[in-house]
Amino acid sequence: MRKSLFLQQSGQALISILFITIIGMTIISSAAFLVYGNIQSVSITEQGSYAYYVAESGVEEGLLRLVRNPYYSGTPIGQPFIVGLGSAVIEVDTASGLITSTGTYNNTTRKIQAQTVYNNGIRTITSWKEVW
Predict the structure, then answer these.
(1) pLDDT in tens, 105-115
(2) pTM of this prediction?
């Protein structure tokens, strides 16, 4: 009688191990997908921040060039201002004093505008904002 009881319970260990393995793999897979999603999200956020700083650099470059040359109209078409691994396209409207810089990094784009006023030989920034 004892031998038949032992034979009936021998398969339960295998089923238990398989069940625990399946549960463990499910938990690990779920955690891996969550971590991957967070990494992607942080990467996109970081690229957006870098593109923003590239656009800011473009506005500063536009201001500097506008102070040196009051007729500066921005970067030539097809020749963006290179900032590190990114690039900025600078547009200057000399009549209104509006400087627009579009910063690009890894297909992520941010745009910043600065409004300036020119009075008595002094250029003053009146507004600095990100535009969509």
Answers:
(1) 999 999 999 99
(2) 0.74
